[in-house]
Prior knowledge:
- The complex is a heterodimer of chains A (271) and B (302).
- With 271 residues, chain A is an alpha+beta fold.
- Chain A has a domain at 28-92 and 121-226: Jelly Rolls, CATH 2.60.120.380.
- Chain A has helices spanning 2-17, 46-50, 52-58, 227-232, 238-241, 251-259, and strands spanning 35-40, 60-64, 75-81, 86-93, 112-113, 122-129, 145-149, 155-159, 182-187, 195-204, 212-221, 267-268.
- In chain A, strand 7 and strand 8 (155-159) form a beta hairpin.
- The longest helix of chain A has 16 residues, at 2-17.
- Chain B folds into two domains: 1-30; 34-113 and 190-299, no CATH class.
- Chain B contains four helices and 18 strands.
- Chain B has helices at 12-27, 135-145, 161-172, 282-288, and strands at residues 35-44, 50-54, 61-65, 73-78, 81-82, 90-91, 108-112, 192-193, 199-209, 215-220, 232-233, 239-242, 245-248, 251-252, 269-270, 275-276, 291-295, 298-299.
- Chain B is globular and about 90 Å long.
- Classes of the chains: A alpha+beta (271), B alpha+beta (302).
- At the A-B interface, strand 8 of A face loops of B.
Amino acid sequence: MSRLLLAVGFVSAFVACDRDNEQYFPQPVAEYPGVVDLGDFVPLTISDWADPSLRVEKSIYDGLGKNEIPGQWGGATFTFQGTGGTVCVLVDPEAVFWVQSVDARSPTDGYLCEDDNYDDGDLDLEVGLSAYYNGTPGVSIGNFEQVYEDSLGNEVVFEANECQMNGQRGQAGAHAGRATPEFCEIDTSLHPGRDYTVLLRLWSLPADDYVVHYAATVVEIEAGESCADAIAAVSADPECALPNEGTADGFAAVEELYCAGELDSLCTDAE
Amino acid sequence: MSPRGVLFDMTSATRAALLLAVVAQACTYDEHLPQVDIKGTVIVPRAAATRVILDDRTGVEAEVVDARFIGPVYLGAYSDIRFDLENYPHPATGPIIGGELGNTYPYGGGTVGVFDFACYTSTLCKVVTGRYADFSSMLDFFSNTLDQPIVDEQGAEVQSPDYFRTSCYDLFEYTEDAELLFLAGEDGLDFKENADGDFEAEFTMWRVNYHPGMKVWGWMDAPDGNFDFTTCDPSNGQQFNQYSASFTTGSSHIDLLNFPSNYIDIGDFVVSEPFELTYEDADAFRAAAPTFTLVYDFPVEK
Lengths: 271, 302
């Protein structure tokens, strides 16, 4: 019996050696290039935004794969013209309804929540005048860093990304975490008619299909109105303003439950 | 020469002298740092220290001249000063990003007087270092000149210098007045009245990145009618959480020199003639060891 136990132990140990975690290293997907330029985009009016079907119809729904060139950023870009007013730019990558299988808020009642930990991607949002964007749309991803030369010829690197998001402690330059929607206001009053570039920087890819699906849009809002207010006017949660960005089986149903505040119905008790 | 070597043939005095020479060599090492300390004198006009005060008892207005009215005096080193950006001379700015004012990208700066917390929240953002000799001077100024008595956290007027001192020692866990920066002592006051009736003080701008042709400019933040200062951020500074008390001690905004026009307001005084540093490089500046005078003569009126 002890020999049998020893053999089983050896076999178990060698099975562990078979785990190479290869699935966590994304591979390029032919249908979804890693660097994409989506061209010009016409910002939604506030009435388009208020209409659930027009909101979806006029927004961008797409997917991004891995950049084929190792070590280089992937991402998508598109441009819109300055309206002369303020616009709200929003991106909602799939998915994240739960980031853990045990609900920290109610660990007993929500002991086990159905979730696919491998369908979450992440996109970081940057927006600025196209003149300051130093990437090549559709070829390589850049940023909005430029060099200013002062009156004495000294060079200063400055950041022209106007999409300022604050972190939990109020610090500027923050980004939302894994698969969480990101949004910001852009004041175009000084540059009406000029091109602005929206950069969706690929931060992480889902491990299930190596494609991060997303929804993105630009909406005209009133001067002084915040992007959060514009989103709150149509949805209690930014995650739900642009629905169905994911394509995985059951995504729409799970998102619908989440947006209805009924996601707990997918959780089972600890008992 | 002895078989043990030359060093052992020397007298002890010679050895000591040799050692001293070697050590002293280290002191002559010049790092040729690109940063310099700029020193000089700032002059603020008499008007900056003058207020018309209404005496509640007599109903008579009287002009009061007091150096304690002088707010923080800021100095910055910039690539250029321009006269076409604002209603007052202002540093050249970089690109305007997202509707925000352009950054001035200063090379360095300094102040004569900084905000300090004088132990009670009623003094938050109202006290500048180098203006008050002692507790009595501060109590007198706030009570009798400003008619804004300092009150403790229970709302009672602070009248006793000893009570003031006790509160400070208790709050900061200090043991002597020298630890309280807002108390300068009679000899430590920054501003003195000069022969012209204006007020002047010495300044040092530490570790300024030297660029030939750079200009030093600045402004004085004058208090408003409530003796508040636009350059102070009450939510900045040290955070105190003790029992039921929870407050920040206030401090200057972090981007004053980068975005001066966000803070310069009516009543402030700006330098209209910045001084230009024309020395070839930081070494030439250090060799010349110049001092400068900066006059805050331009009143901001709109």
